[in-house]
Automatic annotation (TrEMBL):
It comes from Streptomyces actinomycinicus. This is Tetratricopeptide repeat protein. InterPro entries: TPR-like_helical_dom_sf. It comes from the Bacteria. Gene3D superfamilies: Tetratricopeptide repeat domain. It holds the Pfam family TPR_12. PANTHER family: HTH-TYPE TRANSCRIPTIONAL REGULATOR RV0890C-RELATED, REGULATOR-RELATED.
Length: 346
């Protein structure tokens, strides 16, 4: 039903790159081909190569370089009159905006990318852009608004037999079920995503699926060692492919699993590692979630009650400003966990 996974963001002379290519290799090859296209006066090819450069920088956590690269790709595509390439550049920019926590900008850029993709006749970039909009809404906790869009995109991906996009949609829907307490349904969807990604040789998608399975095994079954084993498998993939963001989220999940098991000192170490990684790549959502886990671990290890209250209050304000509804609810539950609901911190 599904063929081997491919990376549609690797275009032009870079189509030979694999979905599993090391991001360091993608960046090196993309930069070389980008400069060659610029020297040859081929803006269309420069736009396509620039897209791969932008995505490599983004996934490596090099935010400023990624921002410059997607904008340069868009300018080159516009010069070439290539509407589809313009859409891909906007998709990359919108994805970067979401990663940076700039959600209004992400909505705007991804919406424009979807429109241009349709106008340019590129169903793949249209689908990826709509998926980006769905993921933005999911991350913000607006499940009702984007749940049906996730299901629609899953159906489209299944019809086309596109493994990578199917896996993405399954993982997004699974995450919503997990966050609303439907653990059995979440596990089944993560399991299907893991199976499809393994058969399609989509190592990135498989690493995220293993992370999801580990989370459910931990929270539903208390299966700490099984969960940690899956996370360590995924961590190996993340390191081999230089998946900086996925690696940081993996470390944060290791902290979650250890915290649930009452292994607070170990959890603290994982959260501290994840926090440093997220700060390096300027990813505010991951930073806030790591701060939350760290605050809870430190509280369990005897941190002063007033310091915990102040940290949670500051996190609540940060998440309120950023529009991360589900994460804000997590802070509320943390305050309840430590009996801090009545604490007022100015």
């Amino acid at each position: 039903m599904y063929g081997k996974a491919f990376a549609p963001e690797y275009q032009g002379t870079l189509t030979t790159l694999s979905v599993n290519s090391s991001l360091v290799d993608v960046l090196a090859e993309g930069t070389e081909q980008l400069h060659a296209a610029q020297r040859a006066g081929r803006p269309g090819e420069a736009a396509r190569c620039g897209l791969a450069v932008a995505e490599a920088h983004r996934r490596l956590g090099q935010v400023r370089d990624a921002d410059r690269a997607w904008k340069a790709s868009y300018r080159a595509a516009r010069e070439a009159g290539d509407t589809a390439a313009m859409a891909w550049a906007l998709w990359s920019g919108g994805t970067l905006a979401r990663q940076r926590g700039a959600f209004p900008l992400a909505w705007r850029l991804l919406g424009l990318a979807a429109e241009l993709g349709e106008r340019g006749g590129d169903v793949v970039v249209r689908g990826y852009s709509l998926a980006g909009l769905a993921e933005t809404g999911r991350i913000q906790g607006d499940y009702e608004a984007v749940g049906r869009l996730h299901e629609q995109l899953l159906a489209e991906a299944r019809r086309r037999g596109e493994a990578r996009h199917t896996v993405w949609a399954l993982e997004g829907i699974a995450q919503m079920h997990r966050n609303t307490g439907a653990y059995d349904r979440a596990y089944a969807l993560f399991e299907e995503a893991a199976e499809i990604s393994a058969r399609a040789e989509d190592r990135r998608g498989h690493a995220w699926a293993l992370r999801g399975l580990a989370d459910v095994l931990s929270v539903r079954d208390g299966a700490t060692e099984r969960a940690l084993d899956l996370l360590h498998q995924a961590e190996t993939t993340c390191r081999e492919m230089n998946l900086s963001s996925a690696l940081a989220y993996n470390h944060k999940m290791q902290g979650n699993v250890l915290y649930r098991a009452g292994r607070y000192a170990e959890a603290r170490e994982r959260y501290e590692l994840a926090l440093a990684e997220f700060r390096t790549m300027s990813e505010p959502r991951g930073e806030a979630l790591s701060r939350l886990g760290l605050a809870k671990s430190l509280a369990r290890l005897g941190r002063d009650r007033a310091e915990t209250a102040a940290e949670l209050a500051d996190l609540a304000r940060t998440l309120e400003r950023s529009g991360l509804r589900h994460a804000r609810e997590m802070v509320t539950r943390a305050r309840q966990e430590f009996g801090l609901e009545a604490e007022v911190v100015r």
